[in-house]
Design brief:
Strand order of the largest sheet of chain B: 5-6-7-3-8-9
Largest sheet of chain B: 6 strands, mixed
Distance between the termini of chain A: 26 Å
Strand order of the largest sheet of chain A: 2-1-3
Helix content of chain A: over 70%
Strand content of chain B: 25-35%
Number of strands of chain B: 9
Shape of chain B: globular
Radius of gyration of chain A: 23 Å
Order of helices and strands of chain B: EEEHEHEHHHEHEHEEHH
Order of helices and strands of chain A: HHHHHHHEEHEH
Oligomer: heterodimer
Distance between the termini of chain B: 41 Å
Structural class of chain B: alpha/beta
Radius of gyration of chain B: 18 Å
Number of helices of chain A: 9
Helix content of chain B: 25-40%
């Protein structure tokens, strides 16, 4: 049954954002065509700008769809169908979590790929493009980034943290939507979702920061590219002085635990407190 | 032999605001295999009760058993619910809604549903959002009546419908609900439906005022409407 829920939830979001992805695809094809044809620079510039704008719109629309689509399908008119399906509440919430994370990650990936793709498109087009990459890398090295392998692993680690933060963000959204639909918190209406989301994120972020001051679990990337975890400030500092990089992970672990707790709480609240109007 | 009950309710209390209980410590049993008329004036808790049985209201006190189970995935697999509002996704076409029900409900008969689509002159590929309210209600009705459920919960299925359509909808309900199942139908149309009911459950002032077979009521020599006017007094409104 969970598989069927996931299938239908994926379709639901696809119907809302599919046309934007189609527009992005058309812009990509048009840009690739201009790479082979002798079109003017203005057309290429406009197409590049259009692609990035479309990708940004896609991210915003997906974000809005995640919030209001989940609210509509759980607690508004479509909730009369969702909440009467012969499936456990935990499956319903998990399906929403998984599919919303997927679409949000996809739209985030689209904007990242669009920006990088446009950059390399222009790098191929102009001689300064390749030199630009060397300039950026050189600047990063003066900022202490170190060897290229460190640079690559650092980017990979940051990408993982971004992906992870996106997943927990979606769970917090579902929690905020649930809170905004139960007594006595339902007096703010749809605006309450934003309020409770901001409160939840703020509290968790503050707690994560506080914990990191007590115990700073850090991901270390040594100058040779070796990856390890450390809590000793001296070890962390030594790694950075030697040309390595450090990324705080206390918040990541804490948020992972909080997210599991929030998921359980969201399911429990849905099971006991919901009143569909 | 112990009588079989489709629904058992014990000490059910439900309020939306602290100062007023819509249902107050209500207890009753609904025998299995009956067509139950759920009657009462506006605001007496009919829709609330149906929503609790359907599992879309979880915030209440008391105990509910449907076929021996509390409202949940087990009961939802055998309970067909028709609310008094449109609940299908606007992105659905008629055939998408049919396929959705077919995916989740093992008692759903897809062929029967598509026969209904033809019978109602509905376009299977028309989107719900482009349909009139009446057409949307037909789609929802056919989805529910294409299930061989053990319990049907129909909340005001005849509300806001013209008399000709009313009769057609009633015929569809009576002809297609699964044999030996229980059907709970909330309505104000006492006159039109009196002959259909086996059992009457009447609510008022947060309480169960009448909970008996229709034969017991008929033995008084009065019509259903007369009895309920006496019971409810000035709160009663009929069409």
């Amino acid at each position: 049954m969970t598989g069927k829920l996931i299938k239908h939830d994926l379709k639901a979001c696809a119907s809302a954002v599919g046309s934007i992805y189609l527009a992005a695809g058309i812009a990509v094809i048009a840009l690739l065509i201009t790479a082979f044809l002798k079109t003017g620079m203005i057309i290429k510039f406009l197409l590049s700008l259009a692609l990035i704008v479309i990708a940004a719109v896609c991210l915003v629309v997906t974000f809005v769809q995640v919030i209001f689509g989940a609210n509509r399908s759980l607690f508004r008119r479509e909730g009369y169908l969702t909440q009467t399906l012969p499936v456990r509440t935990s499956s319903i919430i998990f399906s929403k979590w998984l599919t919303s994370s997927f679409w949000l990650f996809l739209s985030y990936g689209l904007i990242v790929v669009s920006v990088i793709g446009v950059y390399f498109y222009w790098a191929v087009e102009s001689e300064e493009g390749a030199q630009m990459y060397e300039m950026i890398y050189g600047f990063a090295q003066t900022m202490g980034l170190g060897a290229e392998v460190v640079y690559q692993k650092y980017l990979a680690a940051q990408a993982f943290v971004s992906f992870f933060n996106m997943i927990i963000f979606v769970m917090f959204v579902l929690f905020a939507i649930t809170i905004a639909n139960i007594r006595p918190f339902n007096k703010l209406g749809g605006f309450g979702i934003i309020v409770y989301l901001a409160i939840t994120l703020g509290l968790v972020q503050a707690a994560a920061w506080g914990l990191s001051q007590i115990c700073d679990i850090t991901l270390l990337i040594s100058a040779e590219g070796a990856v390890s975890m450390a809590v000793d400030p001296d070890v962390i500092q030594e790694c950075q002085w030697a040309g390595g990089q450090a990324i705080g992970f206390t918040g990541v672990y804490f948020k992972a635990l909080v997210t599991v707790f929030i998921y359980i709480l969201t399911v429990q609240l849905n099971d006991t407190k919901i009143n569909l109007k | 032999m112990e009588r079989e009950f489709a629904v058992k309710v014990r000490n059910l209390t439900k309020s939306y605001v602290r100062s007023h209980n819509v249902l107050e410590n209500v207890s009753f049993d609904i025998p299995a295999g009956k067509i139950v008329g759920l009657l009462g004036p506006n605001g007496c808790g009919k829709t609330t009760l149906i929503k609790i049985l359907a599992g879309v209201i979880h915030d209440y006190d008391g105990t509910i058993l449907i076929g021996g189970n509390p409202p949940g995935p087990v009961t939802k697999a055998t309970t067909a619910f028709l609310p008094d509002q449109t609940y299908l996704s606007e992105r659905f076409r008629t055939v998408d809604a049919v396929d959705y029900f077919n995916d989740f409900f093992s008692d759903f008969d897809r062929n029967k549903a598509m026969e209904f689509v033809q019978r109602f002159n509905l376009d299977p590929k028309q989107k719900i959002k482009t349909m009139s309210k009446g057409m949307q209600e037909k789609v929802q009705l056919l989805l529910v009546m294409s299930r061989a459920a053990q319990l049907y919960l129909l909340d005001e299925p005849l509300g806001g419908v013209d008399p000709a359509a009313r009769e057609a909808i009633l015929n569809i309900i009576m002809e297609n609900y699964a044999e030996k199942s229980t059907l709970i139908l909330s309505t104000h149309m006492v006159n039109d439906l009196e002959s259909c009911f086996d059992y009457i459950l009447m609510l008022g002032h947060g309480q169960v005022l009448v909970n008996t077979g229709i034969d017991n009521l008929r033995s008084t020599g009065k019509s259903l409407e007369q009895i309920f006017k006496e019971v409810i007094g000035n709160d009663w409104e009929t069409d």
